[in-house]
Amino acid sequence: MIEIIPTIVPKGLSTIEQYCARFGGEVAAFHIDQADGDFAFPTTWVPAPGEVLPAQHTYEVHLMAREPRRFGERFIRAGAWRIIGHIEAMEGEDGEHTLQGWRAMGAREVGVSLLLETPIRAIDRLAMYADSLHLMSVSRIGMQGQPFSAAVLPKISEAKERYPHLVIAVDGGIHEENIASVVKAGATRICVGAAISEAEDPLSAYRMLEKLAKSALQ
C-alpha cells in the first residue's frame, strides 16, 4: 500500500483547520512539520493546553526539535496518532525512552527520522522500538520547496533490506517527476509539501501524485 500524505507547516491551529477544510474527506491523513527554531527553522506551532487537532482526520507529526520527547507529548495530547523524532536529537538511551514514552501515552505509531547525511545504521539501536523510518530527501529541513536529492534512493533500498519490519517513509522535494523513483526504491509512505500546497489545485495535485505512485508499482 502506498500512502501520499500532504504536509502542513502550521503557524497555528487555524492553519491545520483550513488545510483540512480544503481537502475535506478526500485525504485521510496529514503530516505536520514541527520546527523548534534551533534544530530546524522556522519555529512552528506547538499545541497549547486544551488545543485539539480536528477530529475528522488523522495526523502524524515530524518533530524537527532538540527536545523531541517533550514536543511529542504535547502533540499526542492534542490527538496526533503517529509521532516521528530525529535520531540526531536522541542521545544514548534517551531514544528508547522517548519512543516507549510516546507509545505509553497513546501514540499508535512511533518513528525515527534521519537527516539526508546520516547513515542508515544510525538507527540500529532503536529499530526494534520503532514502526517506521522517516528518510529526509532534502539537505535542508524545515522549509518547503527544497530540491530533492537522489542520494536518498540507495538509502531507501538499504533501509528496506536492513529493517524489513519498518515502514519506509520519504520526505522532501517530492513531485510528479521523481515520485516514481522513490516508490521503485522501496518507499511506501511519501510526504509531499510544496508540490501539493503550492499547486493551483492542491486536491488535483494530490490525486495525480497518488496515481503516479500506484502506477510505479505495476
How would you sum up this structure, described in words?
Helix content is 32%, strand content 21%. It has 218 residues and is an alpha/beta fold. It has one domain (3-216): TIM Barrel (Alpha-Beta Barrel). α5 (179-185) runs parallel beside α7 (202-216). It starts with a strand and ends with a helix. The relative contact order is 0.15. The model has no long low-confidence stretch (mean pLDDT 96).
Key attributes of the depicted protein:
218 residues, alpha/beta, eight-stranded parallel barrel, 32% helix, 21% strand
Q: Quick recap of the structure?
A:
This protein has 218 residues and is of the alpha/beta class. It has helices at 13-23, 68-77, 94-105, 152-162, 179-185, 194-197, 202-216; strands at 3-8, 29-35, 58-64, 82-86, 109-114, 132-136, 167-171, 189-192.
Overall pLDDT = 96
In spatial order, strands of the major sheet run 1-2-3-4-5-6-7-8
Structural class: alpha/beta
Q: Could you state the oligomeric state of the chains shown?
A: single chain
SSE pattern, N- to C-terminal: EHEEHEHEEHEHEHH
- Compute the CA-based radius of gyration: 16 Å
Distance between the termini: 12 Å
Overall CATH class: Alpha Beta
Number of helical regions: 7
Beta-strand percent range: 15-25%
Measured as a percent range, the helix fraction is 25-40%
Q: Which fold does the CATH topology refer to?
A: TIM Barrel
Care to count the β-strands? 8
Overall 3D form: globular
